Fold this sequence. Notes:
CATH architecture of the domain at 4-121 and 154-178 and 243-257: 3-Layer(aba) Sandwich
Order of helices and strands: EHEHEHEHEHEHEHEHHHH
Bound molecules: NADP nicotinamide-adenine-dinucleotide phosphate
CATH topology of the domain at 4-121 and 154-178 and 243-257: Rossmann fold
Mean pLDDT: 95
Shape: globular
Low-confidence stretches: none
Amino acid sequence: MKDNILVIGGTGKTGRRVAAGLEALGHEVRIGARSAEPSFDWDDPTTFAPALRGMDKAYIVYYPDLAVPGAKEAITTLTETALKEGVEKVVLLSGKGEKEAEACEEIVAHSGLRYTLVRASWFNQNFSESFLLEPILAGHVALPMPNAEIPFVDANDIAEVAVQALTDDQYDGQTLEVTGPRKLTFKQIVETVAAATGRDIQYQPISLDDYKVVMKNAGLPDDYVWLFTYLFSEVLGNADNQVVTNDVEKVLGRKAIDFQEFARKTAATGLWDQPVGQPL
Ligand SMILES: NC(=O)c1ccc[n+]([C@@H]2O[C@H](COP(=O)([O-])OP(=O)(O)OC[C@H]3O[C@@H](n4cnc5c(N)ncnc54)[C@H](OP(=O)(O)O)[C@@H]3O)[C@@H](O)[C@H]2O)c1
């Protein structure tokens, strides 16, 4: 059966891929984003009902993170509105090892909607489509938590798992923990990107306090500095997060994408080439 599916965050790293995967299966996709029509804005609950109206299912990506103040209230209002609008099933993107996100997962699980929770590890695409692209281009990646071993997961795998969860009832009520196939430190990640690009890119371990200063000097607002400090210390430092799972393989019937493969493909696009004017 073909469904009408709202993909919140549908222009972002996972949502864009979820939307493409659903459309390829013949489903009708509506993008949920401030830039979409009708506009959907997490900061304006009056936009929830128009976006959910007529939808059978929804992929929920909260922005910027389920751990921030206000997320619980927004997820409560969204799920209540979804129920009123006749939505049947939702898939929530959550963070693996994020204790603060679990309250939002509970809200979805008790919403009365059919649901699947997809808990993801840190994404490979943070280095190609997000805040870690700039340091890679600069050839100097200074980050805290040098000893954290992170099972980076590919956004393509997250999206494929989310599409399965949205289209196959067997995942109803389940929590799928999606990681890559092995754990890597930031130093190993930077070395892998350097090898894939043939560029000299250095990793510099710094303290969390120094990283906070870097973020403040870069003009990031206090709530972002708080969020990144939380993600580095509580999430990457959490032993629960430093575990490889095989849920990607269980759902997709193939191995999860390795960071090396992601790095090889991304390097081939030229995205990580030395920017013009950048000193060697
Ligand atoms: N990055 C990681 O390593 C990681 C790991 C685990 C979990 N997560 C979770 O993944 C989620 C982010 O997913 P993603 O990386 O796929 O998204 P993303 O790439 O950060 O994209 C953000 C999307 O949200 C929309 N958006 C931004 N602000 C919005 C607002 N106020 N209201 C409505 N839409 C808004 C954007 O479109 P517009 O700008 O047009 O509104 C865009 O479609 C977060 O909840 C995060 O906790 C991330």
